Amino acid sequence: MKLKKKIILIANVMLCAALFCACGKAGENQKDSNGKWEDAYKEIVRNMESYLADPYILRQEQERADNDSCIGYIGIHDFDDDSVPELIIGDDVSVGIFTYYNGSVKKIADLYEPEDWGCINGVHYKDNTVILINSGSDGSCYVCLSCHDGEYITGVFDEYNPETAIVNGKEVTEEEFKMWFDLAGLLDSSSIPRSRIKKDNGIVTAFVINVFQKSDEYIPVEDLDFNAVEW
């Protein structure tokens, strides 16, 4: 059970600012929407651990490193409405958000919980927002990413310390946070299903898209249908 704790103001839960210029108007990237992004995203999936942040060196623990499978998350959503969806991929350590622009994949953000909260309990979505949650005995910590008018916004809210929050790496009040993120609505969000990820020497080879479905059949990465994980 979690005890009450203080929030850590982490500048690492933020956007890759160099990508802001790549987030243009709807239709700007339609030249990239002819299926090329699917192949590029599959390469990210295959090598996901090399693309994901590990701020607290959790993924390097021997038990994790030697395991030939893990539980993770995968989703597709067009945050900036440019006809090329973004890739959401991660595990209980961190989640990366990627986009396909001008023929290559670029990372938008690394998202993870503050250090004193630890791992991710679940990944949820609501409209144009993705939410990472870690639940404690008397509250939760939320790490959020959304896109408004082509600009990506991240936020962190700790229910143990509701008087302060973080938006784009800066400390704000709860009221300011709620101007960007509707907490009441986010709590009623849908979940990205937990997936079982099969690995071979660190390379992802196949998925069970939803471990709670009756079917336990692995889907090879090359046969992955992104429509099945889109919202």
Report what the structure shows:
- This protein is mainly β and 231 residues long.
- The chain is 13% helix and 35% strand.
- The chain has 5 helices and 14 strands.
- A 7-stranded antiparallel beta sheet has the order 4-3-2-1-12-13-14. Strands 10-9-8-7-6-5-11 form a 7-stranded antiparallel beta sheet.
- A hairpin with a 2-residue loop joins strand 5 (122-126) and strand 6.
Number of E-type strands: 14
Mean pLDDT: 85
Specify the overall morphology: globular
**Strand order in space, largest sheet:** 4-3-2-1-12-13-14
Largest sheet: 7 strands, antiparallel
Number of domains: 1
Strand content: 35-45%
Helix vs. strand class: mainly beta
Low-pLDDT residue spans: 1-32
Number of DSSP helical runs = 5
Terminal Cα separation, in Å? 33 Å
What percent of the residues sit in helical stretches (DSSP H or I)? 10-25%
Keywords: Signal
Protein name: Lipoprotein
List the SSEs and their pairings.
Elements (H helix, E strand, L loop, with lengths): L35 H11 L1 H4 L10 H5 L2 E9 L8 E6 L3 E7 L2 E8 L10 E5 L2 E7 L4 E9 L2 E8 L6 E3 L2 E3 L1 H7 L2 H4 L3 E2 L3 E6 L2 E6 L10 E2 L11
List keywords for this structure.
mainly beta, single chain, 13% helix, globular, 231 residues, 7-stranded antiparallel beta sheet, disordered N terminus
Quick description:
By secondary structure, the protein is mostly beta strands. The protein has one domain (36-228).
